[in-house]
Write a structure and sequence with these properties.
- Helix content is 42%, strand content 18%.
- By secondary structure, it is an alpha/beta fold.
- It is globular.
- The N terminus is likely disordered.
């Protein structure tokens, strides 16, 4: 779909919307809105940008309004869609319910949820603190569950919805020093399949993506030797790009994947075959 080229970028509260020379907002053909958690950087921002290029308005969920979130909103807004920021903690059910209420009052047709928010607190299990176990599982797994729960009633009311959960190959194969993260990401896979079974009759699809090593702010800071060691574990001999995950997310969020649900698809360069 070809989107109209944005003209002046107008800031509106905590969001951006491109306006044309006549001062009217660009009206995208799809009329759909996607919620993307953790969309201010990395894979989340790449997914938000890809969905925006498809013509979807974007509800960005982040923990706080800051310089990074403002830059992300502006970048997404340059695509010509409506984008708004909603702040809260996805691991707190009251926050997810509040944010969903705000989103429903701001957007007419929420059609897609992308559960991407996640954190790591790595350590071998014997030295892993209880708070690090709890926080990683709270954000990565419970956050995914709470956001999905908040979206289910609107999806059921409109008899359609697409959920894309970002898991990890670590949830499939494990990884030393990431027992908390691997457990949370494995939990997302089981959760994805369960939601797919529970709500398929309501025309709500739920799929998961399991990225491998992807170029992010963190991997960009690795010493050359460490980066080469990572690449040696990957048959394609390179790290993935966030945009490569985003392409798949956009496919799973759209109507071209209407007969796909309950799947876990790896984007890992063949790392886990």
């Amino acid at each position: 779909m070809q989107c109209q080229r944005p003209g002046i970028l107008r800031k509106d509260r905590i969001g951006y919307q491109a306006v044309n020379r006549a001062g009217k907002g660009n009206q995208m053909e799809t009329g759909k809105t996607a919620i993307v958690t953790g969309a201010t950087r990395g894979i989340g921002k790449a997914i938000a940008l890809e969905l925006a290029k498809e013509g979807m308005d974007i509800a960005v969920i982040a923990t706080a309004q800051n310089e990074r979130s403002e830059k992300a909103l502006e970048e997404i807004g340059q695509t010509g869609v409506k984008v708004r920021l909603f702040t809260g903690d996805v691991s707190v059910q009251e926050d997810t319910a509040r944010m969903m209420e705000q989103i429903n009052s701001e957007f007419e047709h929420v059609a897609v949820l992308v559960n991407n928010a996640g954190i790591t607190r790595d350590s071998l299990l014997l030295s892993m603190k209880e708070e690090d176990i709890d926080r990683v599982i709270d954000v990565n797994l419970k956050g995914c569950m709470y956001m999905t729960k908040a979206c289910l009633r609107p999806f059921m009311k409109q008899k359609k919805g697409a959920i894309v959960n970002i898991s990890s190959v670590v949830g499939l194969m494990g990884n030393a020093g990431q027992a908390n993260y691997a457990a949370a990401k494995a939990g997302i896979i089981g959760f994805t399949k369960t939601i797919a079974r529970e709500y398929a009759a309501k025309n709500i699809r739920c799929n998961a993506i399991a990225p491998g090593f992807i170029c992010t702010d963190m991997t960009a800071q690795l010493p050359p030797e460490a980066a080469e060691q990572l690449k040696s574990q990957i048959p394609l001999k390179r790290l993935g790009a966030a945009e490569e995950v985003a392409h798949l997310a956009a496919f799973l969020a759209g109507d071209k994947s209407a007969y796909i649900t309950g799947e876990v698809i790896k984007v890992d360069g063949g790392m886990y075959i």
